[in-house]
Structures are given as C-alpha cells and as structure tokens.
Amino acid sequence: MEIYGVEEKRGTNYMAYTLIDQGLFYEPGYKVARTQYKKGFITCNYLNFNGYVRIVFNIEEKKTLSSVIKSISPNAFATIILNIIDFILDIKGYGFINIESVDFQPENIYVDMFKLKPYFIYLPIKMQSTVDSYQAMENYFRESMIYLIKVNDNLQGKIGDGLIRELSNQFNSIEQIRENISNLLGLDSIEEDNAYKVEEQDKTEKEHITMSEKLRKMKIERKRRNKSSQEIVGTTVLVEYFNPQIRILSVNPKYKVELLVDKKEYVIGHKKELVDGYIDNSSVSRTHCKIVNKWNKNYLVDLNSANGTWINGKKIKSNIEIEIRPGDKIKLSNCEFVVTAIHKTGGNDNG
User: Fold this and answer.
1) pLDDT tens across 131-171, in order?
2) Where are the domains of the chain?
3) Whole-prediction pTM
4) Nearest alpha carbon to residue 116 among 35, 191, 196
5) Fewer C-beta within 10 Å: the chain N or C terminus?
6) 242-349 sits in which CATH class?
C-alpha cells in the first residue's frame, strides 16, 4: 500500500506503518480496526515511535493469499472470493471506513485456511472515499483475482474458467457476481450459502476446541510474551527489550490480579485478544486503559472507557497521560489496584 506520507515496514510477524504526516491519523477508523477482527480486520496497535505515529498490525501465524495460492483448490479459491466480496459489501456500510485505506493486494490479504476467511489490513488514515473509489477498488479486486487464476495451474479448469467469466463481466454488479459464483459452486441460492457460512462459523467459535489445542495456543502465547529479542528492519528497531519497572496488584485479596507491565505500551481491559493485561470483570471496558512508559516514567491513559478510570480517588479524562508512581491507587470501574515497583532483581518495593 503506497500512500504519500506513510512509510511501510514488514517483519516476520508484523506490518508497521509510520505516519510521517501525523495529521493523517484517523482515530474513528483506528477504533474500527482495533475491534472488528471478526469482520475481517487484522488487529493493530497505536505506538508513539520517535515522535511519529506508528500503526503495527499483528500478522503472527497468518499466511498471505499469495503464499498459499499454489496449494488451494479451485473450489476453495472460489469460496475465498465469495468471502472477500462479503467483506467488500460489509465495509460499504461502515461510516468510518475509507476504502482507499484497505489493502487488497494479494500479498497483503491474509487467509485463515480452516475457515477460508480473508483478513485485511486497514490503515486508519484520513482519506476521502467516493463512489469512484469503490468502483476502482472493485475493479482492482476483479483484475487481481483473474490474474491469480491465470498464472496458477492448480486454479484452472471448469471452476477457474467460470470464475474468470463472472469476474470479467463488467455489466454485473459485485452482488450479482457473488450470486453467480455461489451457483457455480452448486449452491441453490445466496441465502443458502450465507446460512451455511453462519452455521460453520458458529461451530468453530463455540467451545468445541480440544484441551490439547487450548494448551498449544497457551504455549504459543507464552512464548511470544516472553520473547525479548529485537526485530530490526533496516536500521529501525521496532521492538526494544523492555525491563519492567512496575506491576499492578489488586487491593481485594479475594480478587487476586497481578499485571506485570512488560511493554512500553501496555493495554488493560476485559477483552483477552485485544489487551496485554486481562481483567475478568464485565464492568471494565474491553480496552479500558493503557500504561505508557516514556523517558523512564510511567503514565496511565484512559481509553474512552465506559465506567471511568481513577488515580488516587480522582477521575481522569480520556486520552490524557497522567503519571503514576509506586504506591498510587488506581481504580478501573469498580476494580481497585495499587502500583508497586519492581527491582531489577524482580522484587517488590511498595514505597
């Protein structure tokens, strides 16, 4: 995605975009990208990097469409195309999405091969979408899918020819193309295909994961969190080793929570997949607040939480950095905590 004023960096498990022009940052779009993973947006984080805004997307354990294309059957590829069209139709209804900021390049479309579900990078920057913008995006989508079919032998044949025929027909709307491809795959109607997809999604999203799979994911997550190696792109260090200075401890002994602030930007909240510090309390917002380390000091920032954040009994305003020190009392909604220091040897110091 080439956008003036934006620098792109790719690592083994991240895509990072630095906004040289900080006026480009679009906060409403960022909130969408942060919270709409199920819709197909790859989760991202906002960083303050050397004075610039940097948006980092987590692509760990994700495969790009380009990298898996040679192992996909024509039927599976047709299903992926249907799911991409569903995504396009969905985002047309979003009021906060600028279509030019969604990356539809096959090398930057990521695919869950189990569900055949695509995921997209949406860069939250200020751009004005028009009817022409959507048409240009749809044309690019059609052309890129046709190209992939033509250059990959495994996608050619009856299904591949039918896909090219449908995608090439400029007189059909994208909705009509979706219905025709559904029929090409033998589905009786667009409604039947949607019902099938909802049923399959329900099966995978319910508690039908085996214990061994849960343990495997826990080990992967633990390994990722414990990793302190540096990832370097050119001469830029994206992730620095960070020596924790503070931890957050719950005041109520019956409700034991201990959060080790082990990142320069540490998000706390109630939605496990969106935060670094999880609090099992529904009155705490999904992404309630964050702790930011700057110049060897720690600051607490409320992230527009529903039920508020307090420091030493005083409610703080959202999106304002307030310094916190060991001994300070923090209240997130109805949960109370105390800030404690960490010696380099790992011990506590409450003073």
Assistant:
1) 567 788 888 899 999 999 999 999 999 999 999 999 999 88
2) 6-58, 64-205, 242-349
3) 0.52
4) 196
5) C
6) mainly beta
